[in-house]
């Protein structure tokens, strides 16, 4: 972190240039926000009080640093928010994959390279462009890597509005994008927040398989398939397992049904292209992976963060929801004596599902 000493900066011109540099670096949009997140902080504290964060204890352990940027990074005056589209145009059709119970569905954001690395690298380059113009200044880059209310900040920066499913939506781009931030001490002019255009639509609420969107703009993470398959490290609640279907890493249902996503364009970033056929993988093949194969095929991917044990847990649930066949049953039997009690529990549940049919 370094502090700017040049008081003769044309801040309005600099803000315009930052947005242009961002586009040159591959970002689709850049916006600038102040650090007043009072309303978002109230919503966050109420959400935590209702324990809707489940076992994501880090959401509460950081106190108010998440909603007060100056507490996380002293001296912060503005947040430069960046959008990077990721929808992989060459991926298999999502709805077709979810209709095929012999295949597994992986959330489209995780099909390519880990987005944390891509965004942080690009944000650092943006900071270097700014530094070349104004000299040393205070900044810190984030990409879902610290306690940051990125959606609230992006909304203030004019990158879109937070929809009823709690994801950020842009009128021209839908919601298939990543967000990253530069906290800075530069007193840049701020952008106008976007207006909410959800209207009376409730498609995302209706489509949610586990009814995790308990009310407009209210998500109970404990029921969300993304939480269950990625954040949760223990046993998936039995009553929710049949509702997960063949989703083995995340869930895109609320985005797939959102009418604003008809305007979304495939991302141009090659790093986000599908790898190793994970856009429409056969469940039995994935379930046969050794831990070394799991590490090999998820190298550089966000998927690796859940670990091999939870990977097998998720696939066991999907196989339990698959059509009964000798191939599926034999694949599950092969894991009946797995060293992990977590895996064995979910395998047993899956086999019982097939024996009942």
Descriptive overview:
This protein is an alpha+beta fold. The protein folds into two domains: 11-91 and 113-184, no CATH class; 203-262 and 278-355, no CATH class. It has 16 helices and ten strands. It has helices at 11-24, 38-49, 58-61, 69-72, 94-99, 115-134, 150-156, 203-207, 225-231, 241-244, 253-256, 283-287, 291-297, 307-320, 326-333, 341-355; strands spanning 29-33, 78-85, 105-106, 139-142, 161-162, 168-169, 177-184, 213-215, 218-219, 247-249. The strands form four sheets. The chain has a four-stranded antiparallel β-sheet, sandwiched between helices. Helix 1 packs antiparallel against helix 6 and helix 14 runs parallel beside helix 16. Mean pLDDT is 96; it is low at 1-5.
What descriptors fit this protein?
single chain; 357 residues; alpha+beta; four-stranded antiparallel sheet; two-stranded parallel ribbon; elongated; iron-sulfur; cobalamin; 4Fe-4S; iron
In short:
With 357 residues, the protein is an alpha+beta fold. 38% of the residues lie in helices and 11% in strands.
Q: Give the CA-based shape.
A: elongated
Question: What fraction of residues sit in β-strands?
Answer: 5-15%
For the residues shown, what is the average pLDDT?
A: 96
Give a quick account of the main beta sheet: strands, pairing sense, barrel closure.
Answer: 4 strands, antiparallel
Q: Count of helices?
A: 16
Helices and strands, in order, run as: HEHHHEHEHEHEEEHEEHHEHHHHHH
Class based on secondary structure composition and strand pairing: alpha+beta
The proportion of residues forming helix, as a percent range, comes to 25-40%
Task: Give the strand tally.
Answer: 10
Number of domains: 2
What is the CA-CA span between the terminal residues?
62 Å
Low confidence ranges? 1-5
The Cα radius of gyration reads: 22 Å
Strand order of the largest sheet: 1-2-7-4
Subunit structure: Monomer.
Main location: cytoplasm
Function: Catalyzes the conversion of epoxyqueuosine (oQ) to queuosine (Q), which is a hypermodified base found in the wobble positions of tRNA(Asp), tRNA(Asn), tRNA(His) and tRNA(Tyr).
Enzyme class: oxidoreductase
């Amino acid at each position: 972190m370094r502090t700017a000493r040049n008081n003769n900066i044309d801040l309005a011109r600099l803000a315009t240039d930052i947005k242009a540099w961002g586009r040159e670096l591959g970002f689709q949009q850049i916006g600038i926000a102040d650090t007043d997140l009072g309303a978002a902080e109230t919503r966050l504290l109420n959400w935590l009080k209702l324990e809707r964060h489940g076992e994501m204890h880090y959401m509460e352990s950081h106190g108010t640093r998440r909603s007060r940027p100056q507490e996380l990074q002293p001296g912060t005056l503005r947040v430069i928010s960046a959008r990077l589209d990721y929808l992989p145009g060459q991926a298999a059709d999502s709805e077709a994959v979810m209709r095929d119970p012999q295949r597994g569905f992986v959330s489209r954001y995780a099909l390519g390279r880990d987005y944390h690395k891509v965004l942080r690298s690009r944000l650092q380059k943006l900071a270097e462009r700014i530094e070349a113009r104004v000299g040393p200044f205070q900044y810190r880059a984030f990409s879902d890597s610290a306690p940051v209310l990125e959606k609230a900040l992006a909304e203030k920066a004019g990158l879109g509005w937070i929809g009823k499913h709690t994801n950020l939506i842009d009128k021209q781009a839908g919601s298939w994008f990543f967000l990253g931030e530069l906290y800075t001490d530069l007193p840049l002019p701020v952008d106008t927040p976007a207006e909410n255009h959800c209207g009376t639509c409730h498609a995302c609420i209706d489509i949610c398989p586990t009814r995790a969107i308990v009310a407009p703009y209210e998500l109970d993470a404990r029921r969300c398939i993304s939480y269950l398959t990625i954040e949760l490290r223990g046993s998936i609640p039995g009553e929710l397992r049949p509702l997960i279907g063949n989703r083995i890493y995340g869930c895109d249902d609320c985005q797939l049904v959102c009418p604003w996503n008809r305007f979304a364009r495939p991302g141009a970033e090659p790093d986000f292209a599908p790898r190793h056929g994970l856009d429409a993988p056969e469940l039995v093949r994935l379930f046969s992976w050794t831990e070394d194969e799991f590490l090999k095929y998820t190298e550089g991917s966000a998927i690796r963060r859940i670990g091999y044990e939870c990977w097998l847990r998720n696939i066991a649930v999907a196989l339990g929801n698959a059509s009964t066949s000798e191939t599926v049953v034999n694949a599950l039997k092969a894991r009946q004596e797995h060293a992990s009690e977590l895996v064995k529990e979910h395998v047993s549940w899956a086999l019982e599902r097939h024996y009942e049919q």
